[in-house]
Design goal:
heterodimer, A: alpha/beta, five-stranded parallel beta sheet, three-stranded parallel beta sheet, 36% helix, globular, B: eight-stranded parallel barrel
Chain lengths: 255, 374
């Protein structure tokens, strides 16, 4: 399987795992291990740099994982930029998963503010991974603005609906020269495999693992799905056929 | 349009007649739907639905996990004053019980805050009675500024204000507002709030929308359960929450379920709400409004609180004291100086509550916001 490269850094795993919504730090830690992920997102609003009580950072060993802070909760570009700076000053981390979601109900991304924040953050030297609607034109604009990847949603966060946006994601993949990571809405390993078969460079999963009855086993299931989807993509999948092939071709007489 | 007009024009009689005609098969049909409307919400609150409470609870848990994960956010109330010029019949702070009244100085507030911070709390709810010469907007601004350094989320449970005053408190560092209508029934409200500024029903009813307009990120509503007919209150509450979610799409709306508790007012609720009714309303609201935050305080006892964790609740208070100065002073000291608003039922420490949440398979979360947002 080909290695996966974001902003010059190579990763073996193409599965990114989100750390929210888990029933405990212990389960989160085990699920991360089972997923064999190398990139873990963490919501800055959940991080407490001052507390002595166990918190989410204790579950994520930064020696084993690339920590990818996200700006979840930011309502506009200005707030997202401020949060990104906080992450950098606290953890010296210049990778940021950009989430600008003014609607707290369905957490859909604000395209206008996401583009604005990307431009600002790239200028400040951040490696920006924006979470976006599956909008091919926006994806091109973000690439031009210097985004390291684009992360289009398959369907709304936590919806488990899979690739409702399959056609648009196909266009984004076709036109993109930066990695495309399908983020949000993936509810089953088959959805993850589907995204990989379609040619996505990676997928990002959180809720489907976190709220599963067995998050550790589910994390492993997603790991396998991503690998199998990617392998199939690299080999090339034959398109389905409606008719059986004739054993003597109709145009055989021409040869 | 304000919610005042929406509630006025709501066809309560029609809703009631719908509820009377519900058959158990109608409830089953609602449970098959992915998204439900207000009529379906009424169906879930009808009497035949009580038989299917287990199926409704199962769906409520599933939806809550999907949107909020297996987490419970914890907060603590910080009472800054029990002085009040209202005479709410059920409340321990009413003005005709003048004993043991106190408004904390900023230093005293910071002492209380320090206790809560060291415990691990990062989300606090600042609570006050209505005494505008003592707890003025300026007092609140200064208090919020003093707390902002340590707390990531500061919500307020205070008397209703005009939009411009709410804006001042947001600028000072507050991000949430809690205001209960107490009773949505105009007549009941009038009887229970006979005098003082709180007797203005409409000013209070429109406070959540003024708060959202001013820019609070979280607005928490509720009805004080036991004052009026359960069914009427729950319908109005559902309408109110749905209205706020739709109108103020950037605001996280939360609903609380306070039941009348024993207090110095020696008031007994004329229409007490049973545990089963409490569970039914929590689950029905969850199915109707999947993304609404649902809050449960220490007014409820340990066993019930623990059992409600997996049914739809997303936020809980813990180790609460309901008198100003209650954290930094000993229990006997404080009961001599400052009266409590009501008696707390769940008296466990924060650590004990966190352990109980973990035992239920949920992650107790102390921080889910950051002061950097403001």
């Amino acid at each position: 399987m080909k290695a996966f490269n974001i902003a010059g850094k190579e990763f073996k795993s193409r599965l990114i795992v989100g750390s929210g919504k888990f029933p405990s730090n212990k389960i989160l830690k085990k699920a991360l291990e089972a997923s064999e992920t190398e990139i873990v997102t963490v919501s800055l609003r959940r991080v407490d740099f001052e507390s002595k009580i166990e918190n989410i950072l204790d579950a994520i060993d930064v020696k084993n994982y690339k920590l990818l802070p996200n700006t979840s909760g930011a309502r506009n570009a200005e707030e997202a930029v401020r949060l990104a700076r906080l992450a950098r000053s606290a953890g010296k981390e210049n990778w940021i998963k950009l989430e600008v979601t003014p609607d707290p109900n369905y957490l859909l991304p604000d395209s206008v503010e996401t583009l604005k924040a990307t431009e600002l953050l790239v200028k400040e030297g951040f490696v920006v991974l924006p979470y976006i609607n599956a909008d091919p034109v926006l994806a091109k604009k973000l690439a031009e603005a210097g985004a390291a990847t684009v992360m289009p949603l398959g369907s709304p966060i936590g919806s488990h609906r899979g690739l409702d946006t399959r056609e648009s994601i196909g266009l984004i993949i076709e036109q993109s020269d930066i990695p495309v990571i399908v983020d949000a809405g993936i509810g089953a390993p088959s959805h993850a495999a589907e995204a990989m078969e379609l040619g996505a460079d990676g997928v990002m999963i959180n809720t489907a693992i976190a709220i599963s009855d067995d998050p550790v086993k589910m994390a492993e299931a997603f790991k396998l799905a991503v690998i199998s989807g990617r392998k199939a993509y690299e080999v090339g999948i034959k398109p389905p056929k409606k008719l059986a092939s004739a054993s003597s071709p109709l145009t055989g007489f021409l040869r | 349009m304000s919610f005042i007009n929406i509630l006025k024009s709501a066809d309560m009689l029609g809703f009631k007649s719908h509820a009377r005609n519900v058959k158990i098969s109608d409830v089953k049909d609602v449970l098959k739907k992915e998204k439900i409307g207000f009529k379906d919400y009424i169906t879930l609150l009808s009497e035949p639905a009580a038989e299917l409470i287990d199926d409704i609870a199962l769906k409520s848990r599933h939806i809550t996990n999907k949107y909020f994960g297996k987490t419970i956010l914890l907060y603590a109330p910080l009472y800054v004053s029990n002085e009040c010029e209202n005479a709410c019949v059920y409340c321990g702070f009413r003005e005709d019980i003048p004993e043991r009244r106190k408004t904390l100085s900023l230093d005293e507030v910071l002492k209380e805050a320090d206790f809560l911070y060291r415990k691990g709390f990062r989300h606090i709810l600042l609570v006050s009675g209505e005494k505008t010469d003592k707890v003025s907007v300026k007092y609140l601004e200064e208090t919020i500024c003093g707390l902002h350094k340590n707390f990531d989320s500061i919500s307020l449970e205070i008397y209703p204000l005009e939009t411009r005053d709410y804006s001042k408190l947001i600028s000072a560092g507050a991000d949430g507002l809690t205001i209960y209508q107490e009773s949505y029934g105009r007549e009941t409200y009038k009887k229970l709030h006979p005098c003082g500024p709180k007797s203005d029903y409409e000013f209070r009813l429109a406070a959540p929308e003024r708060a959202a307009l001013a820019g609070f990120r979280r607005v928490n509503i509720g009805a004080l359960l036991g004052l009026d007919e359960w069914f009427d209150e729950v319908l109005a509450l559902g309408l109110h929450a749905a209205y706020l979610i739709k109108t103020f799409w950037k605001t996280q709306i939360a609903v609380s379920f306070p039941r009348v508790r024993a207090s110095a007012a020696r008031y007994s609720a004329p229409r007490p709400v049973s545990d089963i009714k409490l569970v039914r309303m929590i689950c029905a609201l969850r199915l109707f409004l999947p993304t609404v935050a649902l809050v449960l305080s220490t007014r409820e006892n340990e066993a019930l609180r623990d059992n409600l964790i997996p049914l739809g609740i997303t936020q809980m208070s813990a180790e609460s004291k309901t008198s100003p100065g209650g954290y930094s002073a000993s229990a006997s000291e404080i009961s001599a100086i400052a009266a409590a608003q009501f008696e707390v039922e769940d008296k466990r420490t924060l650590a004990e509550v966190m352990e109980a949440i973990s035992k239920k398979g949920y992650d107790p979360v102390l921080k889910d916001w950051d002061k950097t947002y403001l």
